[in-house]
Amino acid sequence: MLHVGQMDKKPSVFNLTLSGLEAWAATRKEPPYRAKQVLQWLYQKRVSRFAEMSDLSGRLRAELESEFLLEPLECVRKTGSRDTTQKFLFALRDNTFIESVLIPASPALYGSASDRKTLCLSTQVGCAYGCRFCASGLEGWTRNLEPGEIVEQVLRIEALSGEKVNNIVFMGMGEPLANYDNLLKSVEIIRAPWGIGIGARHITVSTSGLAPRIRGLADQPLQIRLAISLHGATDDVRQTIMPINRKFNLAALMEACAYYCEKKHQRITFEYILIENVNDGLDQALQLARLARRLEAKVNLIPYNTVQGLSWKRPSQTRQQTFYRAVRKGGVDATIRLEKGHDIDAACGQLRLQTMRDKNFAGSHNLR
Ligand code: SAH
Ligand code: SF4
User: Fold this and answer.
1) CATH fit for domain 13-67, picks 3.20.20.70, 1.10.150.530, 3.40.1490.10, 2.70.98.40
2) Residue 120 catalytic?
3) Among 3.50.30.10, 3.90.420.10, 3.90.1300.10, 3.20.20.70, what is the CATH number of 74-364?
């Protein structure tokens, strides 16, 4: 494995879109269809070496080899088993770490189809937004992921698990809309028929509420789904746990969401973690129902997953149910998330955090 300072300067070939590869082929005086050939080897045949691209000339293969990396992410830890939620911790080439989560059929996550294989992707190493309850933000932000590093999570997990992923949620580590250009590029590769081929309607972006970027996304010709991490239904409650609410308050956020719904003719989802004595009172349930009704948004209630080192707690089952019933009574389509993976700390960022705090592992991997 490469260590800090030894990072190979070659870009990953998975950063390239069809037009990017066509442009590259043109500089090599090759016809544009070479780009499609390369993409077929990468995404349909899933080769692991340029040398295997047998319908390309030796010269072209050597040129690809000298300019790009075709090297899978290194999986350094894995938890869970085939029919449960599985978490994968990956070492990146600069020895930073991210995690991805593979969730088998997940009825409480956006729909009820039982053949769903949902993959939760990270978009940044760490997160700058510092939500008080979240493991990903605890150690701050290190860097944005490149488009290829986002795409490689899908490829690597399909290879490791033997499963075909058919649903993508950008709910892993990091704030996707703060890595906007790379997010869009990765979405292009994930949805394209020449790429991974998962349609935009099966891709959900979750955001803590970057209002201008939500509008930007609404202006894109893409039918991706939007989920908002709400977690508080009034400004005073929300801003005690989510600092971003001081920059974009609920009024600004709701306007941006309304713009998204209007442009996309889509219903969005509000995610709402239930944290004991913080946001689980009936006043919040009523306000939440009011906000959701206005936008005809769905509400996904998520009992809080405890994070090592943080003192927040999940409410009792009774309190969860009372909150859930109050939201539904308010005329809202609400679900309460089935606790897949709670035992293995499903909330993203936790495996990395635990691993970073595990001195034996940290010592042997020079963790960052
Ligand atoms: N930054 C984006 C996407 C990543 S977070 C966002 O905030 O939306 C994905 C989801 O996991 C968010 O709704 C987040 O609030 C939630 N989450 C974070 N920590 C959690 C925890 N300890 N228990 C349950 N959900 C958590
Ligand atoms: Fe970042 Fe999202 Fe975690 Fe907030 S909830 S710290 S925005 S990853």
Assistant:
1) 1.10.150.530
2) no
3) 3.20.20.70
pLDDT in tens, 134-151: 998 888 999 999 999 999
pTM beyond cutoff 0.85: yes
> For 189-200, what is the HEC assignment?
HHHCCCCCCCCH
Q: Which of 99, 146, 175, 188 is catalytic?
A: 99
Strands 167-170 and 141-144: unpaired
Residues in Cβ contact with 116 at an 8 Å cutoff, skipping those fewer than 6 apart: 103, 104, 105, 106, 109, 166, 167
Q: Kindly list the protein residues whose Cβ atom lies closer than 6 A to any atom of ligand 1.
A: 133-134, 171, 175, 206-208, 229, 271, 273, 302, 304-305, 307, 347-348
| Active-site residue, 276 included | no
Residues in CB range of 359: below 8 A, 6 or more apart: none
Distance of CA 156 to the CA centre of its chain: 15
One-letter amino acid identity for 83?
Answer: D
* Spatial separation of the C-alpha atoms in residues 39 and 18, rounded to whole Å: 8
How close is the Cα of 171 to the center of ligand 1, in Å? 7
Give me the amino acid identity at 339: E
Euclidean distance between CA atoms 93 and 148, whole angstroms: 12
Tens of pLDDT, residues 236-284: 999 999 999 999 999 999 999 999 999 999 999 999 999 999 999 999 9
- In sequence order, which residues have a C-beta less than 8 Å from that of residue 356 and are 6 or more positions away? 97, 139, 362, 367
